[in-house]
Automatic annotation (TrEMBL):
One of its GO terms (molecular function) is protein transmembrane transporter activity. GO terms for biological process: intracellular protein transmembrane transport; protein secretion; protein targeting; protein transport by the Sec complex. This is Protein translocase subunit SecE. It is a single-pass membrane protein. PROSITE patterns: SECE_SEC61G. Belongs to the SecE/SEC61-gamma family. Its main location: membrane. The gene is secE. Component of the Sec protein translocase complex. Heterotrimer consisting of SecY, SecE and SecG subunits. The heterotrimers can form oligomers, although 1 heterotrimer is thought to be able to translocate proteins. Interacts with the ribosome. Interacts with SecDF, and other proteins may be involved. Interacts with SecA. It is found in: Cell membrane; Membrane. It comes from Croceibacterium atlanticum.
Amino acid sequence: MAKVSPGEFIRQVRSEASKVVWPSREETVRTAIFVAIMMVILSVFFLGIDTLFSFIVQWLLSLV
């Protein structure tokens, strides 16, 4: 890979940074709400699974 001068590197970085498309405020809020809802749903799901396995293990240990 050929070495480039610091000035050329800075120009390339600015050129690439100008191609970045930032999400709108509406898209950001919508995505944040979606992530929060999914986090709650998955938390409740894993709480249920963990509770179920806890009961199963306690039942198995009570047999001994």
